[in-house]
Design brief:
Length: 67
């Protein structure tokens, strides 16, 4: 997926922060519709990355940044 990154002092420079929202999908909110991303698509969901007891996911993914 392609997104626009914004630099901030609030997030470490080696980390990518993603807000936990997908944008609004309600027909009554057309301004935000389709502007969010689903960061769950970036996470692998195989048994190597899921804790077998709590089913928690390993939230580490590799990203590439381009200017």
């Amino acid at each position: 997926m392609r997104v626009t990154a914004k630099l901030t002092q609030c997030i470490h420079p080696q980390v990518v922060g993603v807000a936990g929202h997908f944008g609004h999908w309600s027909p009554g909110m057309p301004i935000a519709q389709g502007k969010g991303i689903n960061f769950n698509q970036l996470l692998p969901t195989d048994l190597e990355h899921i804790d077998k007891i709590s089913t928690a996911l390993d939230h580490c993914v590799e990203v590439r940044l381009y200017k």
